Amino acid sequence: MFNSSFKTKIQKFREDLHQIPELGYEEFITQAYLKAKLIEIGFTVETVAKTGLIAIKHGTDKKAIAFRSDIDALAITEKTDVHYKSLHEGKMHACGHDGHMSILLGFALYLSKIELNKTVVLIFQPAEESPGGAKVIVESGVFEKYKIEKIFGMHLYPEINEGKIGLTKAELMAQVGEFDITINAQSAHGAMPQKGIDGILVAASLIQTYQSIISRNLNPIDSAVLTIGKISAGDARNIIAQEVTLNGTMRAFSEAVYQVIKNRIIEINNGLEKMFNVSIQTEFRDMYPALINNYDLYLMMQDILEDSEIIDINPLMIAEDFSFYLKKVPGYFLMLGSRNDEMGYIHPLHSCYFNFTNNVLFKGIEMYIRIAKHLKLF
To answer: Using omega within 30 degrees of 0 as the cis cutoff, is the peptide bond preceding 348 cis?
Structure first.
């Protein structure tokens, strides 16, 4: 579908971007690179969300279709042996965002010589990993300004083979939140436990009781996860712990289920306060909404794909802030297969060994072109 000159340019985009990974809201070098390439291609470019960019090519119809790429990297030390390895120590594009950017730049390059029927808006979004640049972009008024009707995005996915496209009818990724619990008990010598209140004992009861939320307070067909991933407590082995902190995460596909989890955490904490005569502070941080694809656009994806290309995937408990866009307009987020057993590209997202072939990039660009043609953008 693409000639060798086009492919060479896309490969160069990927290699350049892979070498300059930057964390969320620190993507200034990346932003400058993208801006220069987009202006050279002929797009109008605006800054958004501090380190993000909006690239626009106007069509005869002022209503627009948007396509999005994330641009941030992770605090991971790269251990691949590629010649374009990260030049930023301790940072790596280990989640494929260099690929996402290269795909969207390639799509821009393809569109640069085409007269458009509708305006195309390309969103290069910072801070997807954290704390979530999509929400900032939505709140900036971009969707209203450019009359964006629909939005599309994709993510490299090493759980399915290169050349395949992962689709869901609706739910793709979960709503996610974090919580911090602080138990204030009473210290004492371990030889005289009756003179204190053991915060660790309270924490143990609390953790065990939390597990009943999923198993006993939710409908068994509703998927949800509640995990305590970190505990901090105690000063010495022979001292009753006075303060215990618990850090956890909760995930669900339904807002109602998510709220049940939060409410039960509070109720359990209140009960244990009375039971053990302690005080328990609870702090919630609601992160990203559930990512729910538009069903009509799912049917569209089936129309533009061959049966042999489609992999129906189960919803994932990971999170993606593309979900904020889907609260604004209908959209679709697809999973772009990147697994290649022959090349050894089998490592998961966020791995220091994560890698993929350039054929994945060409497939991603092809997908955006097929979507654009189906929507009669040109």
So the answer is: no
